[in-house]
Write a structure and sequence with these properties.
Chain lengths: ~350, ~350, ~350, ~350
């Protein structure tokens, strides 16, 4: 059994606790909070009632070092860097669910997050945690930058096409639709029920923080700088991200190469489903699960439309975090994550 | 044209503005706020975009006296009393959408709202504003206490039965289900989308503030103290209250007298529909409208089940407030309120 | 007063009835049905309870000719053509809410709807009913082809840019998100609550019937054939369409020309709001209303992102139909349509 | 490994398949259908994509006898009786998720379901499958009548109080609120999204089929005939039942005995949580899980209000079915059911 710590008590922390209830070798022994110190997690999250005796503690690195073999950090940006530095120095594996280690370029981090990165030298070794693309690196690293939810939904379908040079690296459009849990647990106008229910809206048009993260990974896949647009939308549902992604075939590429590339990349992947021709995913098929479903459409004009569905809190956050930690600790990659989506 | 003021900028204020857009003689000329001074109402409430040039002002009684012929107060409890006192002294008709003038007994007010009432002498003259029950008094009063949303849904169906002595004044159960807009605009845990969506819960079990208000009016109708239970529930929808109300026929009363009493009371009422035998309402039939729909069931054992549906922000708040103000100012009672529910 | 007939009893018929309740000169005197002959409309649509004595009749042209001055047709495609032919021959103005008169090219109609058009000669004179773009023609025509809901949301924002040649006529992407009422009243898998709620999906990818309709009108605006993609999505809400539309500035065009063109086109339009810079619409701002809200974004690379919001049943169907009929009968264009969106 | 058959392909069948994906000894080998013969289950239920190779077969008893060690029947009422008769004769354990074996009195079955029971003699031996109340009988029986969803939510909280004679056996009111999946997969008006969303309604007032089932079990618990009312309501959510249950203390009974009786009954039960004083459940705490949460309120007048929350498809159907089958086959009772609710 591994003794697992969680720093932070938001929705992704709750999801980590839920997932570890059925994980055979991860035992959550510590959770920290700023606002809820002393509160039992099953009071904060009544779905855990009677299933956990953990209560939120203050965040003390020395305590964590003693109690934990590995740590998930689920914090607002800027707060993870100093902790990860100390924890890894003590030999503790870290999966950071925040944004601090995702962008390789500290300048871009500063531009989008408004902070000077405190340990830019660590950005080289932190691994961007999509196991299906970076499995080997994840197995041997100390810090995984767990991807953002929107980036996970965009990079998984697009990376194989860019790696093989099938599509143009320009004019890519990622139009994403997210459930409200992505807005976090803290009450605010943008997650107030009556502001969200029976409505849909675009937000962060042209400047959402996940834009450079998607661009970075698509550029890595393409081997050149990719030009893309990303527009997120807020949908009245708790969970789920659907991304509709538009791109163009490169001249001379056959339409069927698109599906072939995706199947070649993912056919042996447990968590990725490339759906049959003419079938497109709905988010509820992966509700509460770590699966990704991808539908593929091409047309005679060379347009490529990929549609991907994930659960933003699971494959888009805590599920992928456990998948990463499984790899880092030498546990079976799918441990604790084999259940299917809750539907209806 | 009457120059209308609104004190407060929450959901009921927004609904007043929406309703007055199609009111032929009420012209909103003033709205006050504490948090949003200087902000245009169509920025706060984009459904009003381009339809109103009002911006929120500070609450200044002298300004209100100059600008307004009549005023709606939509404030947290405790704040209306001093304002209503000054406004009525200046001859300005007031409809208070808050709780300050609803309870005739200042002791009960103190028990449930935790405040010593500052002007208990005014409680005698303030009229409880259900026009279908107190129309004549409303026409000639200076202050209407606009009823709570749950009480409106419970009193309208039950008062006629109690007035005629058809049902026992004991063992009444009001089981109510409300949309989330009743929780107000301020973001908090209880209106956070992910806490509410895909879930239902009871709240305020045994101690909700609308309990004494319902009990007061049912007791007035019965001519004796009524014993009842009230349990509200939170339903994942923006608007609507459905109340399922259980009571017992008095010995010797015929089942058909129940329907007859309701029809006798309401057949000529524009806003109240007594549905045919075997038909029960859904809240969406009155969504956004000032109508009330009531279904009636009795059985051989003398059980009476009434089910009522209202829109909590309209007949349960701002619509009824305008209906009251129409009466107070001698305007046609239905002015501005004749549209039907939005469905689907 | 005009005596108005409605052929069909689905959601758009119900919305027509709701809207005409507050219309001062349109009096609905006739509604026909196939499945619900003899059923009162307030039984089918309980939001109308007590507000209408109409019951569904069989569809008989001679009866309609006698009873009605003007007719709305709300029928599945293929059924309107013979009726409109007879009605207009009798001097009765027709607004067809179906698809039969929208496409000017009977071949494209056949390709997308699978039917040979029975009166292709009528396609020339039928006017595509977006009043903001074709007002004068609508005033003097006999048949209005009421636009599809998605097309309304796409054409209104895009036509002014194409008319002025500001954007490229190629590479346009219309990514639309719709509430479920667009799927109609007949129960089926795609509108079954548990298949839709807590989920979002794309549908009709690459082949939705509204594609040629949008393309036709954008091409008319551009004066040349436009190349575009359209992808609709199903969102768990009753009403509303949000369209996010991606296009590219033509070389040499200034970014600010985009907003200027939209404002020039729509500043005097009652129902169209061009939102301020940085503000984007949500569908709930126009819920139940005939308004359109449009947000505008451009970037340094020449990308143009327009986001539009309408109510699919109102401006996207029955509201626009009444707006058209107002024009055809010489009534004030906004009559019966001045109310704002229901929000929250 | 046990080879498991499922007869029927509706929502409860899909939930059985979902649950068995993480069950270590139940291997679903057979599923039958009438409408979808030949269709893969992962096409019907895309949450199972890539997780199951089963396709729907016709219902043939001989095939089932060969292929299966135990069978779940998930059929409309009336269809299970002949099958269960043949299967148990062949030594195959049966859990019937339908209504055919729940009511001990074939006359009441006929009254509520309109059918003459074909094997009333089997009603004696069939065990009503609430393991927390009938565990020992379930272990040794051949046929479990899996309880209805509403009855599960009402019987679990009330049986202990009636068994101990703490509350009056008259005047009990069960006011229940259910998600829409309870209405089944077949599209119909009552599960059409736009008829359900943004609305709540009562249905089956005074005559719902679950009434006699609840009454039977409460009467068994009380040792005398219980008099009760049951009113179900439809709530716009996929899953979940909340039951608010009103009763009265018997004279001389202390308020604290209520909580004590519930804790005594359930403190060692894995799936039942008696929540702390002042805490009431929400359905989302048990979303997708087999848990039951119960809140307790009593007042000085002797009123008792219990509020229970279950997932209607899990503890209210398929989860409890697996719990029962685990007991029947000698498997650990909680196997496959230990995961927590999905929240948010």
């Amino acid at each position: 059994m591994y003794r697992i710590g969680i720093i932070g008590d938001g929705y992704t922390a709750a999801e980590l606790l839920r997932l570890m209830l059925v994980h055979r070798v991860f035992n959550p022994v510590y959770i920290s909070s700023t606002e809820n110190i002393g509160t039992r997690v099953d009071e904060l999250y009544p779905q855990l009632y009677g299933r956990s005796d953990l209560a939120c503690e203050p965040t003390e690195i020395e305590v964590i070092k003693q109690k934990c073999d590995a740590v998930f950090l689920a914090l607002p940006h800027g707060l993870s860097v100093p902790m990860v530095k100390q924890l890894t120095a003590a030999g503790i594996k870290c999966v950071d669910l925040g944004a601090d280690f995702r962008l390789k370029d500290a300048e871009i981090y500063k531009k989008y997050y408004g902070l000077t990165h405190e340990a830019p030298e660590m950005l080289v070794d932190a691994v961007y945690g999509i196991p299906e693309l970076y499995r080997d690196k994840i197995k041997s690293c100390d810090v995984v930058a767990n991807p953002g939810c929107f980036p996970t939904s965009a990079i998984l379908p697009m990376a194989p096409l860019l790696r093989k040079g099938l599509i143009e690296p320009t004019g890519i459009i990622v139009d994403s639709k997210s459930g409200v849990s992505g807005a976090g647990r803290t009450p605010k106008d943008s997650n107030n029920f009556c502001n969200v229910n029976e409505s849909i809206k675009a937000y962060g048009v042209g400047n959402h923080r996940h834009t450079p993260e998607i661009a970075q990974e698509l550029s890595f896949a393409a081997g050149e700088k990719v030009q893309m647009l990303f527009t997120p939308h807020l949908v009245p549902m708790n969970r789920g991200i659907l991304s509709t992604i538009y791109s163009h075939l490169r001249p001379g590429v056959a339409r069927e190469d698109v599906r072939a590339a995706l199947e070649a990349q993912y056919n042996k992947e447990y968590f990725v489903n490339i759906l049959p021709e003419g079938t497109f995913p709905q988010t509820k098929s992966v509700y509460g699960s770590n699966f990704v479903q991808i539908g593929v459409h091409t047309d005679e004009e060379g347009n490529v439309i990929l549609v991907s569905a994930i659960d933003n809190l699971c494959k888009g956050a805590s599920g992928q975090a456990i998948q990463n930690m499984n790899l880092m600790l030498g546990v079976e990659e799918t441990e604790g994550l084999t259940f299917a989506g809750v539907n209806p």
